[in-house]
Amino acid sequence: MVSLAVLNISLLVACCRVVWTQGPMPAPALSIQRPPSGNKFELFSNVELICSPPSSAPYPIAVSFGRGNATQSAIFTSTIEASTKVKFTTVVIEANKGIYVCWYSGRRSGELSDISNPVNVLISPLPRPWLVVPPFIPIGGNYTVHCQTFSGLPNKTLSLYFRVLPVTKGKENFDHWGSVDLPDKYDRIILERKLVDATESFEFACRLEIKDINQNMYHSPLSNPLPAIAEEAPIRLVPENQGSKCLGQLVAQVRGSWGPVCDSGAADYRKNMAMGRVVCRELGCGTRWSVEKTQDIGVANYSLGSISCQGDELRLRDCAILTVHQVCPTGQGLAVVCSDALPTPQILVTGYGAVSRIRVSDEHSLEISCMFAAPWFGTRQVYVYLKHNSGSSVDTIYSRNLVSGETMTYTLPAPVKSGEYTCSVEERVVGVTIVVSKWPSVGLIVAGVFACLIGAAILGTMCFCAKKA
Ligand SMILES: *[C@@H]1O[C@H](CO)[C@@H](O)[C@H](O)[C@H]1NC(C)=O
Ligand SMILES: *[C@@H]1O[C@H](CO)[C@@H](O)[C@H](O)[C@H]1NC(C)=O
Ligand SMILES: *[C@@H]1O[C@H](CO)[C@@H](O)[C@H](O)[C@H]1NC(C)=O
Ligand SMILES: *[C@@H]1O[C@H](CO)[C@@H](O)[C@H](O)[C@H]1NC(C)=O
Q1: How far is the CA of 301 from the centre of ligand 4 (A)?
Q2: The whole model's pTM is what?
């Protein structure tokens, strides 16, 4: 019973097919394997067209593919015995782009079917190459411009373009700098510029070009342009309190405006210290005394960061400066104090004032004070030493951190030692020489008083005698 029912259905299908072939043959469906992104195919990729004739076609049939403009001339034909899909693969180049269609014809009757729906093979633009130009270029330095694309692209040429900055009227267009044909495995061209001077002020851009087997040229869009401007990058130190040009927040002039030099982040103490040496040298401010991180760096158009100095460079711009940001990434800048900003301390002896030499008796103690006045130091502390130089040895008596205007006082107990007493801040030393003499003994005082009395008596006698005479 069951097998009979199946037979009936298949008879019905066979019957229907006979009915359909008597009209015009229905069109096959043409589909295209979709590109991974968008609706355009990469140059040189293979694209597969799939023609699906209807199951009612009078098999065997010859399935043909053709171009949209010349439908009856087949570019590929395949004969099939039964309902199946027919595939045709083409490579994506200029000559192969455009409309495709397919159709079929009965092998026995030669009758043509209707034409399938059209599909369009489009070529996606070449990928934009990318440009790498160092963000900071020092006057007198060297730099390279890289134009980079994907390796593996065949028959490619990279072309570099430039224009002069600032762009003036009539000179807005990029000029061709040069082109290089690259073997497949290479992916970039490099322009080297050496010992550039202040006229180095360009904007670069580049383009990828590929030639196919028919000598057809494909062009990518121009890369993002990037400036290459040699900078003098003058620097200065901006103090919180006026008074010295050798202390304060480190700022540099980049692309015409002043901005902070950033802390190198990851607690890179040595890098900051080496930079401090260069900064103090460049400013003619002596040697580096300290480099501190600062929080309040204000608003600027540019900041310099990721700076690596050896420490012996003549100018900050000779150090490797790797980033030009709009803001410091860590939000921290740097304050530098150079040796020339260090104050000369003062030394005071209580009861004598600021003297350079005093003579005292060994019976009394003495009070010595050290201090310094440097308002530009703000609340910065400076280590101050009180030392004694006996002639044969130098000993530190007392030392402390002081802020400007603060006094450190030390009492030298009796008997005070002779010698030079100094207050010092780093190499800045001020001293007082104290000569200590023994206080006269009691016996000598009595003898002295007697001597005076005898003298007075002699004088009195002489006067008396003179009056008499
Ligand atoms: C059809 O177009 C292709 C490219 O799309 C072209 O090469 C060919 O000459 C055209 N044929 C006719 C008959 O126009
Ligand atoms: C720049 O190039 C010149 C010439 O090749 C070379 O003498 C000089 O040392 C280079 N300068 C730097 C900072 O690398
Ligand atoms: C690259 O160019 C050569 C020489 O013109 C050619 O033989 C080759 O087919 C080209 N390769 C591609 C992928 O077009
Ligand atoms: C930032 O640049 C603008 C435009 O060039 C300028 O007017 C402004 O003064 C600059 N700001 C600073 C802090 O330099």
Answers
A1: 6
A2: 0.73
